[in-house]
Amino acid sequence: MPPFFDRNDYIQWKIKMSTFIQSLDYDLWDMIVFGQQLPKEYISKPRIKYNEKEKEMLKLNAKAKHIIFCALSSNEFDRISSCETAKEIWNKLEDFHEEKNVEGVTSCLMALEEDSSGDESENEVNFTFKELQNAYENLFKEYENICLKNKSLKKNAISMANEIDNLKKENSKYVKEIESLKDKNSFYMNEIDILNVSSKLSNDSLKENEKLKIEIDALKKSFSTFSNSSANVRALNIIKYYYWALKLFSHFLGWARNL
């Protein structure tokens, strides 16, 4: 059960309550001290439309409010019942009760100042030692509470620094991947250039081959014309030699094209 607050000694209750909540769940304490941005119009918004993050924030807020409600008397509950968030409740209690403590301390200090500036023969005191002691204790407890808040802020700062380091590492990883993709792209571009050159050479070889075929056909016709004439035997042999040379050259071009 949370420590009960009956409007007496708020500073002491505040320290006990903060320790109690932190022992349950530090996320609850963060919700109370720092607050979280709840979904807009979260009261009227249909529940089914909330995403998981919004549901988690609403759940933490409701749990923190429930713990504080259970620790308050009826009069204190009436004072903060209209608050929607746990942070609003906590701040409202602080504003009301710590303002009363400050007023009490101020009154004591003013009374002390008036007493010291008055006639030394008049030793009338308007406050008791117990009141001064309580005022001092309240100030000291408030100082401890501020130290506690600073400690929580330092913890959050360290956590944020770690997250920034992780993001830097992720960014470095993505930069390396981008560089790797650039290298692959350059390699593929070179391959495409080589294929384009090969395609051009292949087209040139086809044209040469067609040209040779035409010349071979012409030689065949010439061979047919001179084959029946004994006077042109020598010319025929020369034509045959030229024919076979062209044929070999044609095969060579075909072989080169298939490389």
Automatic annotation (TrEMBL):
It holds the Pfam family Retrotran_gag_2. Residues 150-222 form a coiled coil. Keywords: Coiled coil. PANTHER family: DUF4219 DOMAIN-CONTAINING PROTEIN-RELATED (PTHR34676), TRANSMEMBRANE PROTEIN (PTHR34676:SF8). This is DUF4219 domain-containing protein. It comes from Cephalotus follicularis. The lineage of its organism: Eukaryota, Viridiplantae, Streptophyta, Embryophyta, Tracheophyta.
